[in-house]
Amino acid sequence: MEYLTNSVEGTKTAAKKIIIKLLKRPHPGALVLALAGELGAGKTTFVQGLAKAIGVKEKILSPTFVILKRYGVRPLGRDKGSPAEAGTPMNFYHLDCYRIQSAKDLAGLGFEEILKNKNNLVVIEWAERVANILPADTVWLNFQHKGGDERRIKLKM
Asked: What is the pTM of this model?
């Protein structure tokens, strides 16, 4: 599946469409989205749109220096197109592995336990750096900057 966007809002809208589809799919543990692509390809913008779609109220910035941020959300499920069931508590984890030297760097953050909880949504920027510890059912999104505001997002499930 592929999405082409030509604006910041277009990338955020694509994120909403994608997360609505993915949250409907069964998954044994956390739903993990692995984002790959060069600097400026739209990964953080995508995460901002995704977070808004699931009900995160805080401003989303890439956690480059803290590596991991957790947001607790309880989507109401009453809004048209809400991606989660009414009242379902979810934990949204946003990771940025740009500064990670090795997947072992995530061990102290309880990453293995985070991946086991099916109420967790885990979105990882620069995920290729920790690919060897991600679950087999990880959804990969490859971001390409095509020039100007144009982006290509390729989904691999």
From this structure: 0.87
